[in-house]
Amino acid sequence: MVNLGQLFGELKTCLKKDQFIFKKRLHGVKKISDENKQANAIEKIAADITRSQENREKRLAGLPKVTYPEQLPVSQKKDVIKDAIANNQVVIIAGETGSGKTTQIPKMCLELGRGVDGFIGHTQPRRLAARSVANRIAEEMKCELGQQVGFKIRFSDQVSNNTYIKLMTDGILLAEIQQDRFLNQYDTIIIDEAHERSLNIDFILGYLKNLLPKRPDLKVIITSATIDPERFSKHFNDAPIIEVSGRTFPVDVRYNPISDIKKDDMEAEGDQLQGIFDAVDELCAEGPGDILIFLNGEREIRDTADALSKRNLKHTDVLPLYSRLSNAEQNRIFAPHSRRHIILATNVAETSLTVPGIRYVIDPGTARISRYSYRTKVQRLPIEPVSQASANQRMGRCGRVEAGICIRLYSEDDFLSRPEFTDPEILRTNLASVILQMLALGLGDMSEFPFVQAPDSRNINDGLTLLEELQAIKPAKSRDKTSLTQSGRELSRLPVDPRLAKMVLTAHKLGALREVIIIVAALSIQDPRERPQEKRAAANEKHGRFDDPDSDFIAFLNLWNYLEEQQSELTNSQFRKLCQKDFLAYMRLREWQDIVYQISTVCNEMGMKATSQAADGELVHKALLSGMLSHIGFKDEKQIYKGARNSQFHIFPGSGLFKKSPKWMMSAELVETSKLYARINAKIDITWVEPLAQHLVKRSYSEPHWEKKPGAVIAFEQQTLYGLLVVNKRRCVYSNIDPKVSRELFIRTALVEQELGLNEQFLAFNRELIEDIQVLEHKSRRRDILVDEQTLYEFYDKKIPKEINNRAAFLKWYKTQKQQNKHYLHMSREELMQHGASNITEFDYPDTWQQDNIILPLTYHFDPGQAVDGVAVQIPVALLNQVQESGFDWHIPAFRHELISGLIKSLPKSLRRNFVPAPNYADAVLAAIEPLQGSLIEALTTRLLRMTGVRVDAQAWDLSALAPHLRLQFEVRDEHDKLLARGLDLAKLKAQLQGKVTDTLSKVADKGIEKTDLTQWDFGKLPASYVKKQGQYEIKAYPALVDKKSAAAVELFDSEVKAQQAHQKGLRRLVLLNVPSPIKYLQQNLPNKAKLGLYFNPFGKIADLIDDCIAAGVDSLLVKHGDIRDEQAFEAVKEQIRGELGDAVVLIATQVEQVLSIAHSLHKKMKGRVDLTMITAHGDIKSQLESLIFKGFVSAHGADKITDLIRYLKAIQKRLEKLPVDPNRDRLCVLELEKVAQEYKKLVNKTPKGLPIPDEVTTIFWMQQELRVSLFAQTLGTPYPISAKRVINAIKEIE
User: Fold this and answer.
1) Among 1129, 1072, 1130, 1135, which Cα is nearest to 1106's?
2) How many CB atoms neighbour CB 687 within 10 A?
3) Distance of alpha carbon 641 from alpha carbon 649, whole angstroms
4) What per-residue string of b and e applies to 1151-1189 under the rule 16 or more CB within 10 Å gives b?
5) Torsion (CA) 377, 378, 381, 387 in degrees, nearest 10
6) DSSP 336-394
7) For the chain, what are the domain ranges?
8) Mutual angle of helices 513-524 and 617-625, in 10-degree steps
9) Do domains 65-244 and 251-422 have the same CATH topology?
10) Which ranges carry the Helicase C-terminal domain (predicted)?
11) Which one is predicted more confidently, 1002 or 1294?
12) Cα end-to-end distance, the chain, whole Å
């Protein structure tokens, strides 16, 4: 039986990659208790160990022979290098490009016996270099590629069991670490081009630093250009450095600084161009040789190429060199040529690409350097001065074939002031991908990882923030506890950037996996669409076929579908030609297809399979959006996009969305050049963001409030994503967000304010109690009887369980609770009252106001400063015409004392001082007078006169000075209790609502009361008033005949006065419709002089004047017969008028002729020039004439007034005769008349609008005319004694 100890001893002679597995298996065997099974297992392990030993021996025996090209500088130092490798675990070899270190060092390792126990791993930064170096070494070793020398790059693996030297990209080695933590498949690792300090290189160097103590047998060789090799040495504990010189010739460095101007100056570009022109001219004079000019980017290269081409330099070709050039255009640079080449290149030509035949270099000293901004969270490409090391690399490009010249377009002082080295990528990039891989490998905290140069902690935090955005890590308050989520573990398995990997995972959930894999693969590579400078328009036209107006991403999908269709139909050769014709890079398309295949393969391994059904655009974009949540933007009013964290960016001109500029968009890449640009973009619907960003949005809530309909507390939610408002003022249930506030609002609004939305019995009971107590408060004008809302809140708060904050929860609880005690939530009167209210009696605070048989409700309001404050009388509009003003000035008993005190205080000081203190006088007045007897003001005036002997004039009382609650308000309401009008003046309300009152009367009247189109009295007796019972009210109206011109009608009026006036005119019309017209009689009997005089009518047609005379004639005859209300009386008066009307009209017309003749002569006299002393008199006379003679004046004044009218006009004649003699006396008389006129005008204005002027007021008008006769023509006489004082006294009596 094989001894276990012996097997452990033999492990050292096995291949390194097998040793760990065998060791683990041997330890496992020890645990097998069954001896037979243990023996079988040991036997199998022994066989495997033997096989591994044989493979090792075979590899040792098959070590290929190695030779070294003598011309390479590294060959001269092979012994030194081999010795260093043999004696040290880590060696740093520094040498310029062309020294041969890349191809010769793996062979030296072979010579030392390395590559037997495991591969000699050799990493390159780029796939092309890995493949080409493998080819070169295989050629030199005269072996087939894939055998002794192989390579492994993404999607291509040419490594076999016979392979000793394995070329690969540094990314491949990084990926292998996940499966082979100790790198057991390697016994030597060469890290080439380490000076580039890419993320992968720095990560590998840090990983190796930790690994080497655990793998003492592992050799690490780091090769670098001569850029800071000491840093690598220090990183690996002062590992030895061996320097190998490159094949170089002396270079003459000349400094030709561009004129001193600021970099942001608009002329900088033009100034640089001139500097290049001067340098080119200088170098052309030095002799033949190609010129390499370093520039910042594609646009600058194109502009400079155009400018140089226009100079038509002899025997010279200007060739651009940048990454987006097609392969054919790049190959022109390397092809043999006889003419001078001027090559315009980006910094790619510093170390990565050796351009043959370069003798001269022009270095403007700047480059676009990718740099991550932790402030804006975007990758920037600013133009920066290059480091000294980069400048020296550029200089070294021209010393390869012969002595060269390098012209620097900056000063030597500028060069010496620059940093020595370019910052490594890890200091300039978002570290999300690195952190993700580190977490997947379980390497712990990034801040403790042994990087060659540790990245800025801010950039580490940004990487973690991005991974949080992608839900790849669990948010941790303490970063040392950061760990991957399930989603993060899946992200780490996908061979693309974390953002792109997130899109793939989301696409699987949304059913858009195929489409998103295609787009993600396209975003992982260089754009396959080529745009040669000289064929840009044609290329744009070809590419434009695939554009989508709303999405650059869909353009990739359209292109893929097109290519898939074409490739299936065409041969490989035809497809290549199609690509060329359509300006598509064939190799990039192959790469695109490879990546799609690779991602699809990984997805399949993870159990994610694409569906055969095509996904719609919305799902595709939602999946893409999941990886770009911090790359969305909103277009502001300045047409600039506001992005995450207050950034601002513009759509890149090359984007399909450049001209459309949607309101919201997402971008695959935000890059800062001259501005911050969004490169590959799509329009988005902002509603897509919220479901994808629930872990990122910041929520805030405003305006929490109870809503009756849903029965819950509702608030408005606002969500922001990195400062962008993605959800604005959306309604949401607040109960779960803040249960405490929701409960308080529920109790205060739903229960205390009775907004529960259900007719629960306890609410009705409590509401009635509260309303009763509120009425007491309004009556007493106090706010301290009812408890405050806090007390009501506390009542419910104590009784209702703490978890209840909405209607549904409340009802569920209350349903059970009321079965035990149905009065559980009933309040008591004692609980609701803070103070008693025994002083609030029915007598002092009545609920109704009675006037005759009308009872009107009173409402009480305690709302100082509001429209209604105090007591309001509620008047149904149908009763408005019956309610009189009398009595309301006394107010209710409770307020009378305060009212009288207020009235006394409203008096002018000279009067008020006689009644001090006012409350005492109010007491005395109230004790002595009988309320509601006559006017309060009159009663108060009379009583104060008796008490003090001081008379108070009626005008002295200032009602406007009273507090609002001391005057009763009137509120008129319709049959639906809707408020129609409100005010303090009942007469004004009546005038304002007279139409409404009439309409209401018509609505409630019995059918047939009102009649139209009457030409005969055939409707029976017409009552003077009409009463109808409606509800608890008696509605009273006044029927009357109404003149409708061609007929009469019966209508209801709200006022007896208006009814009487209308009835008189209606009677007149009905009479005229039933008697012959007196016009013929008038023509026969009117003297010719009178006929001619009537033509002085200044108011239009003569017929209208005659009609006016006839109307006056009928009125004069009707007035003798009183109120006519039945057919018999009407027939009698009609027959009498038939016989008398002709003579009456002739008499009236004769008198009217005299009136018009005198008036005509008066107007004639006042025409022409008027002396200044008589202007006032003339104005007064014209005003008097206008008030006496107007259209319709005959019937308006009445037939009995025409003789007086003639006398008044004659008085004016006499006045005009006297005026020139004594105009001063006339002026004094006018002043006296004006005083009277002002008082009369005040009296007229007191008549409510819509009511006829009362007869007693009309009498005052005629008294003023008699006063004029007395003042200006006393000889004509007046019917009664008259003076200004008599007229004013008469006015006061009416008031």
Assistant:
1) 1072
2) 10
3) 5
4) bbbbbbbbbeebeeebeeeeeeebeebeebbeebbeebb
5) 30
6) --SSEEEEEE-GGGTTT---TTEEEEEE-SEEE--EEETTTTEEE--EEEPPHHHHHHH
7) 4-59, 65-244, 251-422, 489-692, 703-733, 739-832, 848-987
8) 50
9) yes
10) 275-442
11) 1294
12) 144
According to the CATH classification, is domain 251-422 in 3.40.190.10? no
Q: Is 737 helix (H, G, I), strand (E, B) or coil?
A: coil
Shortest CA distance to 795 belongs to which of 762, 758, 768? 762
Task: Please say whether the beta carbons of 92 and 240 come within 8 A.
Answer: yes
State the burial class of residue 1265 (Cβ atoms within 10 Å of its Cβ: 0-12, 13-18, 19+).
Answer: buried
Type of residue numbered 393: Q
Residue 304 contacts residue 344 (beta carbons within 8 Å): yes
Tokens of 1102: 């003569």
Q: What is the largest CA-CA distance in the chain?
A: 171
Does residue 808 carry a pLDDT above 90? yes
3-state secondary structure of 521: helix
CA quadruple 1065, 1069, 1075, 1077: dihedral sign: positive
CA torsion through residues 167, 173, 177, 179, sign: negative
- The three state secondary structure string of 741-786 is HHHHHHHHHHHHCCCCCCCCHHHHHHHHHHHHHHHHHHHHCCCCCE
Q: Which residues contact 559 (CB under 8 A, 6 or more apart)?
A: 528, 529, 546, 584
Q: How many CA atoms lie within 13 A of 1056 on its CB side?
A: 10
**Which residues, in sequence order, are CB contacts of 256 under 8 Å at separation 6+?**
275, 278, 279, 282, 407, 408, 409
pLDDT in tens, 45-61: 888 888 888 888 888 88
Assess whether pLDDT exceeds 60 at residue 688. yes
Please enumerate in sequence order all residues whose Cβ is within 8 A of that of 546, keeping only pairs 6 or more positions apart, or say none: 555, 556, 558, 559, 562
pLDDT of residue 122: 96
Q: Which two tokens stand for residue 98?
A: 């062309």
Query: What is the Cα–Cα distance from 1182 to 1098, expressed in whole angstroms?
Result: 14
Chain segment 1006-1045, per-residue pLDDT in tens = 777 888 899 999 888 989 888 887 766 778 888 999 999 8
Q: 10 Å Cβ neighbour count for 598?
A: 18
Q: What is the DSSP string of 403-459?
A: -EEEEESS-HHHHHHS-SSPPPGGGSS--HHHHHHHHHHT---GGGS--SSPPPHHH
Higher per-residue confidence, 318 vs 444: 318
Can you spell out the DSSP letters for 1057-1081? HHHHHHHHHHHHHHHHTTS--THHH
Q: How long is the chain?
A: 1295
Confidence class for position 1293, pLDDT limits 50, 70, 90: confident
| pLDDT tens column, 308-321 | 998 988 899 999 88
Distance CA 930, CA 927 (A): 8
* pLDDT tens string 128-177: 678 878 988 999 999 999 999 999 987 688 999 889 999 999 889 988 88
Amino acid at 906: S
The whole-number pLDDT of residue 268 equals: 45
Among residues 553, 542, 545, the alpha carbon closest in space to that of 583 is found at: 542
Distance CA 112, CA 188 (A): 11
- Count Cβ atoms below 10 Å from residue 419 Cβ, excluding itself: 13
Q: Report yes or no: 735 and 805 within 8 Å, Cβ to Cβ.
A: yes
Ramachandran region of residue 977, left (φ > 0), alpha (ψ -120 to 50) or beta?
left
The contacts of residue 179 (CB under 8 Å, 6+ apart) are: none
Task: List pLDDT tens digits, range 532-574.
Answer: 877 888 988 899 899 998 999 999 999 999 999 998 898 878 9
Please check whether residue 124 is in contact with residue 133, taking contact to mean a CB–CB distance below 8 angstroms: yes
Q: Is the pLDDT of residue 1130 over 70?
A: yes
